[in-house]
Write a structure and sequence with these properties.
The structure is a single chain. By secondary structure, the chain is of the alpha+beta class. The chain has 6 helices and 4 strands. The chain has a 4-stranded antiparallel beta sheet, with helices on one face. The longest helix is centred in the middle third of the chain and has 19 residues. It binds protoporphyrin IX containing FE (HEM).
Length: 181
């Protein structure tokens, strides 16, 4: 997993707990590189999961909610860092549709070692949108946050339902997104 994701997770934690508390926390978590992450490095996803678990334990906060919050944080970084991907998108559904065949395709070209999920999307009747997440990594709550932030960015009122699906050897979740007028 790209170092930028770790760097942003740590920045988010620092914004909540302060730098010193995050330093202490990283000292306590068993990490291969002692918690020194650089944006250009690559690190195992399980280390990210360990850090989120440790933040959750420290703050006494549910892990799923932290992953989701991190999705919101990361989405804001994407908007800032890669505005080109947002050009020409009419609404949140357009944006979500473009992740699999456009955004993540470009990400893979830039960073061949990136570990990305795959998405299947479908527009259903009545302003309903289906997005199915499949990944080797259990980041569906993070994904939930990204989707929520994306819809907010395009100023939609919407309701999102997430259901985990069982697929052998993978993590899979189905998101049903209903636009609310
Ligand atoms: C709402 C829109 C988006 C969704 C739902 C989404 C979803 C995800 C998810 C769930 C992951 C975690 C990896 C996994 O679960 O296997 C991920 C990773 C990533 N995404 Fe996206 N993404 C979105 C937009 C973007 C944008 C706009 C960029 C801009 C470049 C981007 C770049 C990346 C990068 C760099 C990673 C990390 C890959 C790695 O760690 O190796 N994504 N994305």
């Amino acid at each position: 997993m790209k170092g930028i994701v770790f760097v942003e997770l740590i920045r988010m934690a620092e914004s909540v707990m302060g730098e010193a508390a995050v330093d202490d926390l990283l000292d306590k978590v068993e990490l291969k590189n002692d918690g020194a992450f650089t944006a250009v490095g690559n690190y195992p996803c399980r280390e990210l999961l360990k850090i989120v678990d440790a933040i959750g334990a420290e703050l006494n906060a549910p892990i799923e909610a932290l992953h989701k919050r991190f999705g919101h944080w990361m989405f804001a970084r994407f908007v800032e860092g890669y505005p080109i991907f947002f050009d020409g998108k009419e609404d949140g559904f357009d944006m979500l549709e473009s992740i699999e065949n456009e955004v993540h395709v470009e990400v893979r070209k830039l960073y061949p070692e990136a570990e990305l999920p795959s998405f299947a999307t479908e527009r259903l009747e009545g302003d309903l949108f289906k997005m199915v997440y499949t990944s080797e990594r259990p980041l569906h709550h993070f994904c939930h946050g990204l989707i929520e932030a994306c819809l907010l960015h395009f100023q939609h009122r919407s309701e999102i339902q997430m259901q985990e699906r069982h697929v052998a050897g993978k993590f899979c979740a189905e998101f049903l997104i209903q636009k609310v007028a």
